[in-house]
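Q: Structure tokens for this one, please.
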Amino acid sequence: MKTQTPKNRLSKYIILSIIAILLSAGAVFWIVYGTTGNNDSSSSQPTTEEQEAEAKQAAEDKQKFLDNEVSGNGTSETTTPDVNEDSLLLTASQTDDAVTVITKIYGFSGEGTCTLTLSKTGHVDILRSANILYQTEFSTCEGFSINKSQLEPGEWMISATVAVGERQLKQSINFTVE
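A: Here is the predicted structure, written as tokens:
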């Protein structure tokens, strides 16, 4: 019977340790990257961090937009409809970093959802959802700000659908991303 020398035993421990480390690293890699699906940065579905950043940016952009309209500094070309009719007004603006879509909802009250779709021929649609935020003069969607890294330059169709119970309003506009 052969006895193992301390050198042979040490070599086996080193090899077994390396194998265990590689297996552990592979398992961690698989858990982090393998179970999240496609982590392609060009995907139209943002990560949680991107969604939080977009929500924050949307809130800031929306507040700036509304502040400008209240103070008369806004450049909006839309007109206020008769408040007795149900209507949805949709406007979009862009900065160096994002495209912000603002909705004004007249004649609808109550809890509901807003769904935004950005479409361009030959591209995957970008979808976003938000709750309706009630205000006295008009209601609005909580805000939509889409990072321009997700949008190629050119003509996009921006469509919004507002749903409260069984009632729906739809509006679409064309918008050029520069």
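A few notes: Confidence is low (pLDDT under 50) at residues 36-43, 70-81. The helical segments are 6-34, 48-71.
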